[in-house]
Specification:
Blueprint lengths: L6 E5 L7 H9 L12 E5 L12 E3 L2 E12 L2 H19 L5 H15 L4 E12 L4 E4 L4 H15 L4 E3 L3 H12 L8 E10 L7 E5 L6 H4 L6 E9 L3 E6 L4 E6 L1 H4 L10 H28 L2
Antiparallel strand pairs: 1-6, 1-7, 2-4, 3-4, 4-5, 5-6, 8-9, 8-10, 10-11, 11-12
Helix pairs in contact: 2-3
Length: about 300
């Protein structure tokens, strides 16, 4: 339940919260496994717990969605091993080398024949919609996975006007100040990791891990490099790595926070998951609101 990464979006129109209408819209794009000839399938799945046969889970001001993605895995070595003799045979038949286009067509045809024998690999991407803030928070570090989820929601709802929650240009300026220990968001302090990159074509990078970021050897790189990743900490709440594109990676919740519901136990699994979901949502609000305000103020 506890998110580990974030792709952040501001939804500019309120979502329909009628549960029956939501379920009907999402069910039209529910997940079904790949057939023998399909390489990839995606669709909505139960976001909170498999025992709940619903595609949107709502509690208080929170809506939870999940998209399951199944992909057939064909190792390149297997494809190449099967492809080589086919290319040789066709070149002998035609009496000339095959063009790149012909080789690609042969490869695509081969892949279709191999798909029924391929292994299936599945993953689930979860998203939280905060009705109070109008935020859509996607638990992934991958921009493409987040866009896949948004695209499927748009198909189901007809539209989903969303924009990045954090302004990249303003964020890039603030990362520079934050690494200097200046103008940090309220309640935050520097962590122990940073990455900087030169803006020229070569783009030389330097990365510091488990390092005192106020040290001269770190600060000196600010003269000719841009900050691309920076670790931030919020006392006894969250730690994360914020990236220049506005995404958040390696999100961790403090043990005192994530363990707040331990006394509930797990006899009521759904009740416990709901409680953890609300606890996580509140913690994310407390972290993202000062972060967003700090960036927007510049």
């Amino acid at each position: 339940m506890w998110f580990k990464n974030l792709r952040l979006y501001q939804v500019t129109e309120n979502l329909n919260t009628d549960q029956d209408q939501l379920e009907q819209a999402l069910a039209a794009f529910k997940f079904t496994p790949c057939t023998s000839q399909e390489a990839i399938k995606m669709g909505f799945t139960s976001p909170l717990h498999p025992s709940l046969k619903q595609y949107c889970h709502q509690t208080n001001d929170v809506m939870l969605f999940a998209v399951k993605r199944q992909e057939k895995v064909l190792p390149g070595s297997v494809v190449n091993e099967e492809l080589a003799p086919k290319i040789d045979a066709m070149e002998q038949e035609k009496g000339r080398p095959l063009s790149r286009k012909e080789k690609q067509a042969l490869k695509e045809e081969l892949i279709q024949t191999l798909l029924p024998r391929a292994f299936s690999k599945s993953s689930v991407t979860t998203a939280l919609y905060d009705k109070q803030q109008g935020w859509l928070l996607v638990d992934t570090s991958s921009a493409s996975r987040a866009e896949e989820l948004l695209a499927l929601l748009r198909k189901a709802f007809g539209s989903l006007p969303a924009m990045p929650l954090l302004d990249n240009h303003q964020l890039n300026q603030q990362l520079h100040f934050w690494l200097q220990g200046k103008e940090l968001p309220q309640g935050f302090q520097l962590g122990a990791e940073a990455e900087l990159k030169a803006p020229d074509e070569e783009g030389a990078k330097v990365r510091f891990i488990n390092h005192l970021l106020s040290a001269d050897e770190v600060q000196s790189h600010l003269q000719d490099k841009l900050v691309t990743k920076l670790a931030l900490e919020q006392d006894e709440k969250v730690t994360f790595l914020i990236c220049e594109d506005g995404s958040i990676k390696r999100l961790k919740f403090h043990d005192l926070l994530s363990g707040s519901n331990e006394e509930m136990g797990w006899d009521d699994v759904i009740g416990r998951l709901d409680a953890d979901l609300l606890l996580m949502t509140d913690a994310l609000r407390q972290a993202l609101l000062p972060l967003k305000a700090n960036i927007a103020a510049q």
